[in-house]
Design a protein that fits this description.
This protein has two domains: about 200 residues, 3-Layer(bba) Sandwich (FAD/NAD(P)-binding domain), CATH 3.50.50.60; about 110 residues, FAD/NAD(P)-binding domain (3-Layer(bba) Sandwich), CATH 3.50.50.60. The protein is about 25% helix and about 25% strand. The protein has eight helices and 17 strands. Helix 1 packs parallel to helix 8 and helix 4 crosses helix 5. It is elongated. The two termini are about 35 Å apart. The mean pLDDT is about 95.
Length: about 325
């Protein structure tokens, strides 16, 4: 069943309505073109899924898009302020954002693409577009542990808040920022926290005000930590760990697999976007960000492949201007 009996046409279809996708839409509109944005979730869906109390490590002006100032009560904005800001920007520019509409795929060639989508209701739709921009980010696909029991409902890849885990036995897998913050918040809320990590200790890249805090909690025994260790199997009431001293069974109610995320490489490869074998970076024209498939452009963190720490909102937001200029020139 189709949402649109007569197929709508747009000059540019943007897959992803995060900050970079919105920035692309704004720059396209500024050049008198007609963009449509699709997101399988809500607007800035990745930020919505951040921990509720998250504070950005950057200042407001570095998150701004579309020449709209961002204000914050404190020096650094929080998640709620960012959500409010990006909603305001989308309203200001009257962006045509199709929320909760997943792009299943697209066919065709430069100047005459057809996109197939699916709504949250299960209905399917189709649209025409002359150009396509992929700005889908990397937060949708978690890196898997690839161990037995990983599909149990108690395994969680996105930490939101600590309250539901009060008085529970919780295992944190990982030792970077997100893992350290989750471990501390869960401990402070009354969860019994165990941390496991393949490396020798907490990552050196953890924020300077977080690292000594989690290390002190581990040193005091308030948070139990197993380093140079890994999850071997997740069971209903415990987790088996492989440690330097041998296998250890840890009592467990919930597992937070804070092992990072990756772009949807499969979607890109299925649609003719080739990846560099060493870095998984899509092959693009550095001056226009057009992929090897003519008419398909890439924006934001997906340009970095597996090196997701190279591109953030702060620099990915500028991709919109580069791509919009290239598309405007191409369409004459």
């Amino acid at each position: 069943m189709s949402r649109n009996a007569q197929m709508e046409s747009f000059e540019v279809a943007i897959i992803g309505a995060g900050p970079t996708g919105l920035a692309c839409g704004i720059e396209i509109k500024k050049r008198g073109l007609n963009p449509v944005l699709f997101d399988k979730g809500c607007i800035v869906n990745s930020i919505y899924h951040y921990p509720i109390n998250l504070v950005f490590f950057t200042t407001p002006e570095l998150l701004e898009i579309g020449d709209i100032p961002m204000t914050s009560l404190n020096e650094k904005p929080g998640r709620t302020e960012a959500l409010k800001y990006y909603r305001r920007v989308a309203d200001h520019y009257k962006l045509n954002v199709h929320q909760y509409e997943r792009v299943l795929g697209f066919e065709g060639a430069d100047g005459e693409f057809t996109l197939r989508t699916q709504l949250s209701t299960g209905e399917e739709a189709a649209y025409r577009a002359k150009k396509i921009i992929l700005a889908s980010g990397y937060y949708d696909i978690p890196n898997r542990l690839n161990v037995p029991g990983e599909n149990l409902s108690k395994v969680i890849h996105y930490y939101r808040e600590a309250h539901p885990y009060y008085d529970q036995d919780v295992l944190i897998v990982g030792a970077k920022n997100s893992a350290a913050i989750a471990a501390l918040e869960l401990h402070w809320t009354g969860a019994r926290v165990t941390l496991v990590h393949r490396g020798a200790g907490i990552s050196a890249n953890v924020k300077y005000w977080i690292k000594p805090n989690i290390e002190n909690r581990i040193k005091s025994g308030e948070v139990k930590a197993y380093f140079r260790s890994r999850v071997k199997e997740i069971r209903t009431h415990e987790v088996a760990l492989e440690t330097p001293e041998g296998e250890v069974a840890v009592k467990n109610d919930y597992v937070f697999a804070m092992t990072g995320y990756r772009p949807d490489f499969e979607f890109m490869e299925e649609h003719g976007i080739h990846l560099d074998e060493a870095t998984s970076k899509p092959i693009t024209n550095p001056e226009t960000l057009e992929s090897e498939r003519r008419g398909v452009y890439l924006a934001g963190v997906i340009v970095a492949g597996t090196h997701t720490n190279e591109i953030f909102i702060e620099n990915g937001r500028f991709h919109g201007k580069v791509i919009a200029e290239a598309i405007s020139t191409s369409l004459g």
